[in-house]
Amino acid sequence: MQEKVIVVFGGAGGIGAETGARLASEGARIVIADLNGAPAQAHAADIVAGGGQAIGVACDITNPESCEQAAQAAVERFGQLDGMVNCAGISKPHDSLSLPPTDWARMVDVQLNGAFYSAQACAKRMGTAGGGIVFITSTNAEAAFPRRAAYCAAKAGVAMLTKVLAIEWAERRIRVNAVGPAYVATEMTQRNIAAGNVNEEQVKARIPLGRLAQPADVADAVSFLLSERAGFVTGHSLYVDGGWLAYGYF
Ligand SMILES: NC(=O)c1ccc[n+]([C@@H]2O[C@H](COP(=O)([O-])OP(=O)(O)OC[C@H]3O[C@@H](n4cnc5c(N)ncnc54)[C@H](O)[C@@H]3O)[C@@H](O)[C@H]2O)c1
To answer: Under CATH, to which class is 5-237 assigned?
Structure first.
């Protein structure tokens, strides 16, 4: 990662915060882009205090112009752009029969449209050496959960977007991959547990490795996919799920 410039969308919280800090500790220069500028700047300041290089910017991933500005901030501050990770996301389980169309649209906007806008903004600024893109998807790109129609459909969309962009941008030497966690111990999951949408003990019992993922488990996979060690890996979804998808017994 030495000296690579990487934009982390949704980088102020949860998986994104951990991933930005990890990549910075490996020598990358980081742009933390998140909906609210203040937490993005605060996390960047923490990275700098730890000896890394980072800036924080406000970015609404549902707004293409806002994604352009975040990508441009990387070029203006660090002189280049080599990679991006999209960790921005929301979760709002709801019965499909009564799901308000505005909620459907918002989920697709944040999870699917935002993935495309952020990738497009970054890819057009990558140099002739190419770069790396990683989307955080979910086991829900493959496995259906009730009351998550928009979330599951959007994540499956991002898994296909990963393949399309990978083959289209291969000639630009841009590798595009996805990391799909099952349940990760973040605020998003805590909110779902508190709201009664997720039963933590049931979830642990369903995961062969017997625990929730930690954000660091996801950051490990992102770091690998952005690195030269994954130099011939593109169009791939890597599931960091403790065996969730493999499990097909009772
Ligand atoms: N937590 C899990 O169990 C889990 C499991 C599978 C997949 N995921 C996915 O991983 C990603 C990160 O989830 P997390 O658990 O870290 O969530 P989180 O809520 O802890 O963090 C999400 C971050 O995205 C930011 N964000 C939200 N809307 C945004 C927007 N419009 N523009 C820019 N930033 C925005 C938030 O401000 C926050 O910093 C999401 O895409 C989520 O769907 C999470």
So the answer is: alpha beta
Residue ranges per domain, the chain?
5-237
User: Exposed, middle or buried: residue 69 (CB in 10 Å: 0-12, 13-18, 19+)?
Assistant: middle
How many A from CA of 14 to the centre of ligand 1? Answer: 7
- d(CA 13, CA 241) in angstroms, rounded, equals 20
Six token digits for residue 214 = 């930690």
Q: What is the pLDDT of residues 57-66, one digit of tens each?
A: 999 999 999 9
What pLDDT, on a 0 to 100 scale, did the predictor assign at position 1?
85
Q: How far apart are CA 186 and CA 36, in angstroms?
A: 18
Pocket test for ligand 1, best of 87, 116, 137, 192 (most atoms within 8 A of CB): 87
pTM given for the model: 0.98
